[in-house]
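STRUCTURE:
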């Protein structure tokens, strides 16, 4: 992979905004450099633009050095930054699987970048060669998601590896649900693939969707580009502090994941007993895709009972399917009770 060739010219030439915090980062006592208010500490100070303390902590947890970590306002931010780094609007394109996470398409549309979609097979899996065939000279990145949303399954590891070694552009691998999966992350293989960008998030297994914190892992050259493009203070003080505090909850997080996996199994075993359920797809994530007779009707019935699931029945290969998040034992019981009323 030739990073220089992949980057947009304006990004290659970009001289990033240099903040007061960037220019001076040593020990000091009097800060008169950033036009901050001296009162209302600690909220008066701009946050660390590169979040070093938080990255050091994440580095320990993920066993990846801080220079290979980018933190964003959710995973949405690095998704958008991939487009802004590599894809010339109206010229370049990306390749992705179908169905998958809707944000890739939205970010592409906002950046005026074409998405070349390759339909998954009946088992919701893909062949690397099909994605490579969909690419042309203007394809800067391939987006895949494993475990995939909304289908719930891990993608074939061998095919992902073929894609990584067969494509000379960027491969974005979204691992938002990896903590719920029986296979491990690609993180230990990060150094084998200079074109790999792994996305993870604190929104799912860590239970921090509200503080908006997502991660991208890649080689330092790519992280450096992302840092040039992002808003200087993209992660605010509250999020940085709260994340540091909540990262101490690793044991609780492991417990939550265990409960959710037990509950997932319970739902997978119980749902097929309802006569209107046609198929419960296997899941490696914290949600289940369920094919039903009259999915829309059941969606509306549940809504009337103040239980909200996701209607995916208009999505490619998800006809008549609802995506159900695995909740707490009590929440899942409410769901099953409501469905029981229907028979
Ligand atoms: C939920 C989800 C994310 C997380 O997004 P955040 O912006 O970090 O909350 C990322 N990718 C996929 C596929 C998801 O389903």
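SEQUENCE:
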């Amino acid at each position: 992979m030739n990073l220089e060739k992949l980057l947009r010219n304006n990004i290659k030439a970009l001289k990033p905004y240099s903040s007061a915090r960037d220019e001076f980062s040593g020990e000091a006592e009097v800060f008169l450099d950033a036009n901050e208010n001296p009162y209302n500490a600690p909220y008066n100070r701009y946050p660390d633009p590169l979040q070093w303390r938080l990255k050091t902590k994440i580095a320990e947890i993920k066993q990846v050095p801080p220079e290979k970590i980018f933190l964003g306002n959710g995973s949405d931010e690095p998704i958008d930054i991939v487009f802004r780094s590599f894809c010339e609007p109206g010229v370049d394109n990306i390749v992705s699987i179908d169905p998958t996470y809707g944000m890739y398409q939205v970010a592409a549309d906002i950046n005026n970048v074409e998405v070349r979609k390759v339909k998954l097979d009946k088992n919701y899996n893909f062949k690397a060669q099909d994605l490579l065939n969909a690419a042309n000279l203007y394809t800067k990145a391939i987006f895949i998601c494993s475990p995939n949303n909304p289908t719930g399954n891990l993608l074939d590891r061998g095919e992902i590896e073929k894609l990584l070694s067969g494509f000379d552009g960027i491969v974005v691998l979204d691992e938002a649900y990896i903590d719920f999966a029986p296979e491990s992350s690609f993180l230990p293989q990060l150094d084998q693939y200079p074109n790999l960008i792994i996305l993870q998030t604190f929104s799912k297994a860590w239970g921090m969707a509200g503080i908006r914190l997502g991660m991208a892992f890649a080689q330092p050259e790519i992280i450096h580009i992302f840092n040039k493009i992002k808003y200087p203070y993209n992660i605010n003080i509250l999020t940085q502090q709260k994340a540091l505090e909540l990262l101490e909850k690793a044991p609780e997080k492991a417990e939550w994941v265990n409960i959710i996996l037990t509950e997932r199994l319970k739902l997978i075993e119980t749902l097929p007993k309802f006569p209107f359920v046609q198929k419960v797809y296997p899941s490696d994530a914290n949600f289940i895709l369920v094919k039903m007779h009259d999915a829309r009707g059941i969606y509306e019935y549940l809504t009337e009972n103040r239980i909200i699931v996701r209607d995916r029945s208009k999505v490619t290969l998800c006809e008549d399917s609802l995506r159900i998040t695995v909740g707490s034992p009590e929440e899942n019981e409410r769901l099953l009770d409501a469905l029981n009323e229907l028979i």
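REMARK: The chain has a mean pLDDT of 97.
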